[in-house]
Sequence to fold (328 residues):
Amino acid sequence: MKVLDNLRTPSLLQTLQLIAQPTKTLENCAAKYGDIFTMRVMGLKSPPIVFFSHPQAISDCFAIPAKKLDFKKATHVFKPLFGENSIVFKEARSHQQQRQLLLPAFHGDNLKSYGQAICQITEEVTQNWTSGTDICIHSFMSNITLEIILKVVFGITHGARYNTLADITNPEAITQLSYLNAVCQETLRIHPIALICTPRMVKDRVEMMGHEFTSETVLVPCIYLAHRRAETYPEPEQFRPERFLNQKFSPYEYFPFGGGYRGCIGAAFSMYEIKLATAIILSRFELSLTDKRPVHPVRRGITIVPSGGVKMVVTKKAKLKKQTILST
Ligand code: HEM
Fold:
């Protein structure tokens, strides 16, 4: 049985480093210890927390039966953020039941029926933009996301409001555009919003990629490091959407929304929305950075956001015909 590298730094220091500089800390550990290593980042008496990014380890982990893992104990630190009743803290049957209740709203035909509304809301929110308008992309996209989810999924039904609106364009066709898809995928590869999947604590013992893990060990599939493996993504620091045109990555190499039975229920909906909002905005406006300093990924709560919010200035494009969006 292989022995894992353990970080020697005191646990409190490791915890502070990961909180203050999460991406840099993970990168440093991967450079020093490789695909799989153990940290102690849950305070002074932290259990061993194993971070891994090798596709085989990710695949093995997603396949571990839920009854062998405790999600509640490993995620209790997130309670103030998500609230007691979040699906994240549910186990076994009650977890499955909640997923079955929530999933349909974000999939299949329901998803398709939101397309028109997503385009419409993006149009409404940007209608006051004129050439020279300064915007902060991060807050703008956060607002638009909230607006969309409240109106489209939880609020006014598309039937009541949106059927009467003019047909802007064909959302389904937009979401099929291969280069747009590749750009959105590459963005979530290089800057995943969540650095890790939901941590899971071993109940008794499990095996992963030839390593055995005993009770109380916390397993953490690391999205950020998996997305930056040079074996999978040559020159991983380069933003290169073409990777996604030329190759199909497995769900253990590319998983910005996690995976397996705990994977994000909003994954399909989010990709749909990202593509539509991006296409609508870029078909009407040109955006350029107002601040030339480089943007860094920084932690906000449990997510990663761009430093400084990405300040941009808008230039309005001449009105385009429908076909132009679809042919780019
Ligand atoms: C770009 C947007 C989003 C990203 C990158 C994202 C990412 C993730 C990730 C990485 C996980 C953990 C999965 C795992 O452990 O394997 C997750 C879980 C989850 N996400 Fe998302 N998410 C996004 C948007 C959404 C939206 C819009 C919703 C609302 C519908 C949502 C609802 C959930 C829920 C309920 C879970 C917990 C699933 C479970 O424990 O069974 N997410 N998300």
Q: What stands out?
A: The pocket of protoporphyrin IX containing FE is lined by residues 87-88, 99, 106, 193-194, 197-198, 256-259, 262-266, 269-270 (CB under 6 Å). Confidence is low (pLDDT under 50) at residues 157-167. The chain has one domain: 5-327.
